[in-house]
Amino acid sequence: MVRAKKKRLINLLTSSIVMMTFSTSLLASESKAQSASGDWFKVSYIADNTYMIKEPKSSQYNISYLIIGNQRALMLDTGSGENRSHCKQRISNIVNQLTDKPVTLLLTHFHFDHNASIDEFDHIAFADIEKIRERAVDDKTYIFAPKELAFGTYPEKAIVNEWLDLGKNIDLGNRVVKITQVKGHTDDSVLVVDEGNKIIFMGDTLYNGPLIVTGKHNYAPYIQTIKKMQADFNDTYYFYGAHGNKALGGMMRYSILSGTSDLLECAQKEACDYSEVISEQLGGNELTGTLFIKNELPLIYTEDLH
Ligand SMILES: [Zn+2]
Fold first, then answer.
1. Distance between Cα 66 and ligand 1 center (Å)
2. Which end of the chain has the lower number of beta carbons within 10 A, N or C?
């Protein structure tokens, strides 16, 4: 009895120490997020060794993510670049405050609002997708297309240090992620799956805000992408988008997939609850198209982004 009591006491003490260590590291990570935040970038600690870097003042409420392993960290997107004309805060400085591990930058896709600060990163990895490889000279120098550069001619190019295989484990050190190609928003978009933490980083395939569909041919692959996600994942997963808004932030739950599938299907048929022809400014360019809304989820259809 005495021995059993002693064992229970030791177990209790051990679990208290584990809890204390966990809360101390959680507090340290949260305080790191707070001190890295500034006038433009706001940082949140969203899961173990995972930070969300928001730009609430950017024109589209951009969100980038930093995923940290024991050996290396993966940075998803470079932010909107709009900070550069507003203040001295730079996204690379934020990242340096959050981790001392070597950082690899991965673009979730190649739109202007995700690549503008790419020159602040010295190790760049792109998804090994034929369409992306085609735009890289000698598999090394990626030349940005005019459509990827709404703010003029910057950045002109990037040096690709690494090509990441689709569907294969990317070992960050005691943390493994995988990238998957997803068509719909663009042909060369990827999402990042962190199975261990049940987190899916969605890029612009899904976020809290009006989704963009460019050209009718993109509806079918987009619907297919969302339906595949419905089949592959379930309500134990957390989904994080590359845009958000003040009310909802960047996180979504599984139920958004069925809502998005319904939204895409009604927009494809031009038969949603609500539709309106719109014309608005997007990244310095005029965006004209149709806004569709179904069950409070919005989508903008446009023939061309630029
Ligand atoms: Zn975007």
1. 17
2. N
